[in-house]
């Protein structure tokens, strides 16, 4: 039994702008000052704001999603110095608990407007939309997606240690190469951005340096993890993180009450502010002894249980919605597990089309697939030219029968939140056939092409 109260570190103020709180930051950089020291072997409670820094409100309008400032996001709590951690070690992070704040027992899921953030299916669903979720113990429900209730697999979307100067330079170089090689009509990476940089307690000179050099926190990266959005990194999980700087400089944030595999709508988990309880242990010389240069994790024992026979699985292949064949492209295939049926193809009708039979709109289904306990898998990547992926919808999250047993009976499902004056989101035909696919459009042959 515990003899002492668990120490709270990195406390946040939900009434104060995230950019004014010195124990938060929104860039990865080795020089951001540490906010506190944690002992090797110690368990602490760390408070976190939601990933938008409080930009999204509990209301029935998606104006805040449409107008979100994406230069003011991913505020992480930290960095924390871990006593004894040195480059070449591993930091063993054991997630003991994650909970929403008692004074804020709700979260949100969003579809970003295509012109401001977009998402995995923004060529089909370009409008801003939002669903608010209310928490009751381990369960959540939403007035914007009715007849659904499920237990959350609560977890952090982002955790990692600071990069060294050399690792940071590697990140910026390879992502700059990706941007230079881009042939797609979309952003493919985010370079360092001084606008609205927040570097904790850094002085003006250091803040300017972090703005010029600091890596954005949007993607996960192989050297340290970061924004991986792995739903099974929940209570009881153990994560082994490479250490690149003295003290490790660990940071955490972007807490999720629940998330489907893929988090496909970008703001696709049930995003929340809350408290995460973590135990830290330093594994000396762990990178060499265990042969690890990238994180690994062992899932915890806590997960909502849906029997193998209580899922409907939708298959997707690397043939896009316009009938164009792509080579072994799992991103194209996973899109097809999700999408509606189109009259110009001889196939189609993924999870969104299926849920339309019961009265859900495309946007309600898109939001639900992003945040509910959906199981996504790569089923086959050996049979050219088609990769095969699957998306598993748990039937027991609904309070009515959604099994494939005849024509659906539409119910009154209301609506999710849209912009002021908008009754329903737009559904577009999607991108035209192109030389380069959504997921495999950047190739290298003796350099960028």
Description:
With 449 residues, the chain is an alpha+beta fold. It has 2 domains: 7-298, Jelly Rolls; 308-397, Endonuclease I-creI (Roll), CATH 3.10.28. The protein contains 7 helices and 23 strands. It has helices at residues 63-66, 165-181, 204-213, 286-289, 330-338, 351-356, 362-371; strands at residues 7-9, 24-25, 27-28, 36-38, 43-48, 76-82, 90-100, 106-111, 129-136, 139-141, 150-151, 155-161, 215-216, 220-221, 225-227, 238-242, 250-256, 266-271, 274-283, 296-298, 311-317, 375-380, 388-394. The strands form 5 sheets. Strands 2, 4, 6, 12, 14, 15 and 17 form a 7-stranded mixed β-sheet that branches. Residues 440-449 have low confidence and may be disordered.
């Amino acid at each position: 039994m515990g003899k002492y109260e668990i120490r709270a570190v990195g406390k946040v103020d939900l009434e104060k702008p995230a950019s004014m709180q010195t124990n938060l930051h929104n860039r990865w950089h080795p020089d951001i000052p540490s906010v506190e020291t944690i002992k090797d072997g110690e368990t602490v409670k760390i408070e976190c704001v939601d990933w938008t820094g409080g930009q999204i409100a509990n209301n029935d309008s998606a104006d805040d999603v449409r107008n979100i400032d994406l230069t003011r996001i991913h505020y992480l709590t930290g960095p924390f110095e871990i006593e004894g951690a040195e480059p070449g070690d591993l930091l063993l992070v054991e997630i003991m608990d994650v909970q929403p704040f008692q004074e804020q027992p709700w979260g949100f899921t969003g579809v970003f407007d295509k012109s401001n953030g977009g998402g995995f299916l923004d060529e089909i669903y370009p409008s801003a939309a939002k669903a608010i979720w209310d928490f009751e113990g381990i369960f959540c429900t939403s007035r914007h997606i009715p007849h659904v209730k499920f237990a959350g697999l609560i977890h952090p979307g982002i955790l990692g240690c600071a990069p060294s100067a050399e690792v940071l330079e590697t990140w910026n170089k390879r992502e700059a190469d990706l941007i230079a090689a881009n042939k797609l009509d979309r952003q493919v990476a985010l370079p360092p951005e001084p606008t609205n940089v927040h570097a904790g307690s850094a002085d003006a000179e250091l803040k300017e340096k972090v703005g010029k050099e600091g890596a954005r926190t949007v993607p996960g990266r192989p050297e340290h993890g970061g924004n991986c959005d792995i739903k099974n990194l929940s209570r009881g999980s153990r994560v082994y993180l490479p250490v690149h700087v003295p003290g490790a400089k660990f940071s955490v944030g972007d807490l999720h009450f629940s998330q489907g595999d893929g988090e496909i709508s970008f703001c696709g988990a049930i995003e929340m502010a809350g408290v995460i309880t973590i135990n830290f242990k330093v594994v000396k010389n762990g990178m060499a002894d265990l042969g690890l240069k990238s994180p690994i994790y062992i899932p915890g024992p806590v997960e909502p249980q849906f029997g193998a026979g209580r899922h409907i699985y939708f298959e997707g292949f690397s043939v896009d919605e316009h009938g164009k064949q792509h080579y072994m492209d799992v991103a194209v295939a996973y899109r097809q597990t999700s999408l509606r049926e189109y009259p110009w193809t001889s196939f189609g009708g993924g999870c969104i089309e299926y849920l339309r039979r019961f009265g859900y709109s495309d946007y309600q289904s898109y939001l639900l697939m992003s945040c509910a306990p959906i199981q996504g898998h790569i089923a086959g990547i050996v049979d050219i030219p088609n990769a095969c992926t699957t998306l598993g919808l748990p039937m027991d999250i609904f309070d009515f029968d959604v099994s494939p047993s005849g024509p659906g009976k539409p119910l009154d499902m209301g609506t999710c939140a849209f912009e002021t004056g908008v009754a329903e989101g737009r559904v577009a035909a999607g991108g035209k056939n192109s030389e380069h696919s959504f997921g495999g459009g950047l190739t290298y042959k003796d350099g960028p092409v």
